[in-house]
C-alpha cells in the first residue's frame, strides 16, 4: 500500500507528465483536481499534489483554495536538509518566500518537482534550481505542522501524519551518510539560459 509520501510524489510526477497541459499563473482559488488544462503557480501546485494524495493541506487551511509560500512557511515545521524526505517541501527566499518545490527523491542533490514558469512542472535537481533562486532556503516537513504558541506552552506535540510504512522513515543511517556528503550551497546567480530562454524568478506574493 502506498504511503502518503509516495502518493504526493506520484501526484507530482503526474504533473510533470502533463506539463503541456499545466500552465503558470497565480490563480486563486487554487484548482484542486485532475481536470486539465489547469493554471496554477508553485505553491498552488504543491497544494494540489497534497490534495490528490489525500494528505493534510500544507497551508493549514483545510483546502479552502488559498495558500502561498508564506502559509507553507508559517504552518509547516522546518527541518535540516539532511532530514528532507520524499514529499517534503523546499522554499527559497526569506519569509514570505519566493518559490517552492516538492522533493521527489531525497539524496545528496535532491530531485525536485518545480513549477515556477510556463515550462513546468519539471523534474530538476536542487543544485540546478538554486541557480535561479534566492540564496535563503528552508526545508519543510510537509506532513508535520508547527505548534501554536499555546500548544508550545502546554507542552503539546504538533500534529503529525505518521508514515510508518515508509521504508525511509527514521533511518538514522541515511541521515548520517548524507551528513558526511559535501553540502550543497544555495547561491543566487545570474539568470541563465535554459532551452534558449532565461528562467525567471517566480513571484509568490500573498493574494
Helix and strand arrangement:
Blueprint: H1 4-17, E1 22-24, E2 38-40, H2 42-53, H3 69-75, E3 76-79, E4 89-92, E5 99-105, E6 111-114, E7 122-125, H4 126-129, E8 137-145, H5 149-154, H6 172-180, E9 193-194, E10 197-198
Parallel strand pairs: 1-2
Antiparallel strand pairs: 3-8, 4-5, 4-8, 5-6, 6-7, 9-10
Helix pairs in contact: 1-2
Shape: globular
Whole-number radius of gyration? Answer: 16 Å
- How far do the termini sit from each other? 37 Å
As a percent range, the share of strand residues is 15-25%
| Global mean pLDDT | 81
The DSSP helix count reads: 6
Computed structural class: alpha+beta
Helical coverage, percent range: 25-40%
| Model regions low in confidence, pLDDT < 50 over at least 5 residues | 149-154, 162-207
Q: What's the count of strands?
A: 10
Strands of the largest sheet, in order across it?
A: 3-8-4-5-6-7
- In N-to-C order, the SSE pattern is HEEHHEEEEEHEHHEE
Strand count, sense and barrel status of the largest sheet are: 6 strands, antiparallel
Structure in a nutshell:
It contains six helices and ten strands, in the order H-E-E-H-H-E-E-E-E-E-H-E-H-H-E-E. It has 207 residues and is of the alpha+beta class.
Provide structural commentary:
This protein is of the alpha+beta class and 207 residues long. The chain has 6 helices and 10 strands. The chain has helices at 4-17, 42-53, 69-75, 126-129, 149-154, 172-180; strands spanning 22-24, 38-40, 76-79, 89-92, 99-105, 111-114, 122-125, 137-145, 193-194, 197-198. It has a 6-stranded antiparallel beta sheet with strand order 3-8-4-5-6-7. Strand 6 and strand 7 form a beta hairpin. Residues 149-154 and 162-207 have low confidence and may be disordered.
Amino acid at each position: 500500500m502506498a504511503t502518503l509520501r509516495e502518493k504526493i510524489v506520484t501526484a507530482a510526477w503526474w504533473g510533470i507528465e502533463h506539463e503541456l497541459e499545466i500552465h503558470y499563473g497565480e490563480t486563486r482559488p487554487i484548482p484542486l483536481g485532475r481536470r486539465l488544462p489547469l493554471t496554477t503557480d508553485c505553491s498552488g501546485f504543491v497544494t494540489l499534489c497534497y490534495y490528490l494524495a489525500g494528505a493534510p493541506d500544507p497551508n493549514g487551511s483545510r483546502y479552502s483554495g488559498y495558500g502561498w509560500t508564506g502559509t507553507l512557511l508559517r504552518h509547516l515545521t522546518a527541518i535540516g536538509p539532511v532530514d528532507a524526505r520524499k514529499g517534503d517541501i523546499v522554499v527559497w527566499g526569506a519569509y514570505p518566500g519566493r518559490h517552492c518545490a516538492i522533493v521527489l527523491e531525497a539524496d545528496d542533490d535532491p530531485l525536485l518537482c518545480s513549477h515556477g514558469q510556463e515550462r513546468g512542472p519539471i523534474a530538476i535537481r536542487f543544485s540546478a534550481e538554486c541557480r535561479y533562486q534566492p540564496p535563503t532556503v528552508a526545508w519543510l516537513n510537509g506532513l508535520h505542522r508547527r505548534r501554536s504558541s499555546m500548544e508550545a506552552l502546554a507542552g503539546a506535540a504538533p500534529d503529525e501524519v505518521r508514515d510508518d510504512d515508509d521504508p525511509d522513515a527514521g533511518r538514522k543511517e541515511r541521515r548520517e551518510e548524507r551528513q558526511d556528503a559535501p553540502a550543497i550551497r544555495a547561491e543566487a546567480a545570474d539568470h541563465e539560459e535554459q532551452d534558449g530562454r532565461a528562467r525567471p524568478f517566480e513571484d509568490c506574493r500573498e493574494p
